[in-house]
Amino acid sequence: MSSVSATTLINVFNGTCNLATLVGAFLCDTYFGRYNCLAFASVSSVLVRGPLSHQILAPVLHPPKCVPGQPCSKPTAAQFTFLISSFIFLVIGAGGIRPCNLTFGADQFNPKTESGRKGTNSFFNWYYFTYTFAVMVSVTGIVYVQSDVSWAIGLGIPAFLMFLSCAVFFWGTTMYVIVKPQGSPLTSVAQVLVAASRKRTLKSTENPHVDELFNYLPVKSLNSKLGHTTQFKCLDKAAIVTGRDEFNPEGSPKQPWRLCSVQQVEEVKCVVRIIPVWSTAILFHIAIMQQQTYGVFQALQSDRRLSTSGTFRVPAATYIIFTMLALTLWIPVYDRIIVPYLEKVTGKEGGITMLQRMGIGLILGIFCMIVSGLVEEYRKHIAATKPGLGIAPKGAMWLVPQLVLTGLAEGFNYIAQVEFFYKQFPEGMRSVAQACFFAGNALASYLSGFLVSLVHHITTGSKRGDWLPDDLNEGKLDYFYFMLAGLGVLNLGYFLVCARWYTYKGDGERVGEMEMNAKESKKNVHLVV
To answer: How does it sit in the membrane (predicted)?
Structure first.
């Protein structure tokens, strides 16, 4: 398979896994709750590991090994179907775990207390720390076992670890704080849009406290009470009371598709305000993804020996560890040293705002693309001195600066994104909030595959030659990196406009309990497996 085809396939699979989180988040927030979705998805992920390992052990389920100097055999239709079937279970597992695990962990903190709020802030950092550490182990130890020992063992280790984590998860069931689902949050959004459309001819009110606005919040509402804001006044029309509106004895409207509360309107405004900020992350995702694909291809065409006289070559995919290592080392320093210092200087909780952290990540992403382009230029120049080898005699360690910058960019932007979506979405949509992060990743994966294919198609046959051929020494990968840096600069300008316009959601005052008493969690849990 060519490098362009492999890159596109990886992007499509990753995109599908991330896109599945939207479905998982909807089912979680609407019907089953985070615990049940996590339970079902975890079991699904465990069950798929067996068939994947069996496919490696059974010769009939995979094509024969490639013979050097000869084209590799393609998988048969049955072999490919078996593989795709296994991938479907992986997608189901990802769709349930990714939008729920972080929010489920954050649910364990009490947002009413100062210690709970600080604990939540640190939790996002340490969650990503744990995640990157796990990835770091997988791209070193697991990749080594798969490439140099046995594919079957290399797939069996993750299967065992997934089974172990699943067992630990179920063991802690009685200790969890479990938030019950509150019904479809998307229905409430749709009601506001429909009601505002029906009352579009009414005149918007300038005073949020006049009697025309319908202020109603159920006693057991999960969401914090939001004050009226002046943005998107057209949506306020959904809360204007008219003579045609009727009410139930407890105060709720008899026609919820015609009259909505100020609370519902403000929750929709929260979502609308987030969308432009969310869109700025897509180009950032695309840039970062290149290190996971073309960064590996760069390593493949570099000297990966640990010494000039040695024979052992570091697997190309293992170089991604420098991204994870930079992130793993940076998070404790930032959380325990830099944040307390910034809090003293700025007087703000967290030191700097979430949008400021996202902006720093975007800037680091631009520098990452520039450095990647310069390193590729140098690698090609060195490789040209010994064209017969096909690889640059300089070590692949030259890739470390761009990989470290990638890790630092993720440390600022990714973590800030996750925290931003969790805190700025209405509480009843927190699983959807995390799914938005992965949906951005999904869209970026598809667009990255499209962009790579488009650049390859346009530049093939041009005077300067194909930018992205299989042999990077014959291509212009550095131009591709510089193009992404230019797009990153434009994206940064767009982000600054969005950040300047954005209004943070107020903390509000919770008017009802969250129905998440840990002592009653046994009664609240119903496994859906």
So the answer is: Multi-pass membrane protein
Q: Can you state the angle between helices 262-300 and 477-501, rounded to 10 degrees?
A: 160
Q: 176 exposed, middle or buried (CB, 10 Å; 0-12, 13-18, 19+)?
A: buried
Q: Rounded distance, CA 141 to CA 372, Å? A: 26
- What pLDDT shows up at residue 526? 38
Burial 71-83 (b: 16+ CB within 10 A, else e): eeeeeeeebeebe
How far does the chain reach from its first CA to its final CA, in angstroms? 38
Dist CA 441 CA 418 (whole Å): 12
Strands 224-225 and 302-303: unpaired
Beta carbons within 10 angstroms of residue 259's beta carbon: 25
| 148-177 per-position pLDDT tens digit | 777 777 778 888 888 898 899 999 888 888
Buried b (16+ CB within 10 A) or exposed e, 511-522: eeebebeeeebe
CA dist 20 to 148, 209, 478, Å?
33, 42, 33
Q: What is the pLDDT of residue 283?
A: 92
Token output for 232: 């998107």
State the number of CA atoms in the 13 A half-sphere of 170 facing the CB. 14
Tens digits of residue pLDDT in 189-211? 888 999 889 888 887 655 545 45
Query: Percent of the chain beyond pLDDT 70?
Result: 83
Amino acid at 139: V
Give the residues across from 240 on adjacent strands.
Answer: 213
For residue 304, give both structure tokens: 């990966």
Q: Count the alpha carbons within 13 Å of 453 in the hemisphere toward its beta carbon.
A: 14
Phi, psi of 217 (to 5 degrees): -145, 125
What is the pLDDT, as a whole number, of residue 517?
39
∠297-301-305 over CA atoms, to 5°? 115
Q: Please state, in angstroms and rounded to a whole number, the distance separating the CA atoms of residues 212 and 209.
A: 8
CA distance 418 to 358: 10
Please determine, for residue 478, whether its predicted confidence score (pLDDT) is greater than 80. Answer: yes
Average predicted confidence (pLDDT) for the chain: 79
According to DSSP H, which parts of 98-236 are helical?
A: 101-106, 114-137, 143-144, 151-171, 185-198, 233-236
Phi-psi region of 402 (alpha: psi -120 to 50; beta: other; left: phi over 0): alpha
Side chain identity, residue 349: E
Nearest to 148 by CA among 323, 317, 301, 303: 317
pLDDT of 391 higher than 80: no
User: In DSSP terms, which residues pair with 302 in a beta bridge?
Assistant: 392
Q: Rounded CA gap, 299 and 322, in Å?
A: 13
Please state the pTM of the whole predicted model.
0.77
Q: Which helix (H) or strand (E) holds 510?
A: strand 509-510
* Diameter over CA atoms, the chain: 88
Q: Are strands 302-303 and 392-395 parallel, antiparallel or unpaired?
A: parallel
Residues 6+ positions from 490 with CB-CB distance below 8 Å: none
The span from the CA of 501 to the CA of 277, in Å, is 10
Contact 117, 111 (CB under 8 A): yes
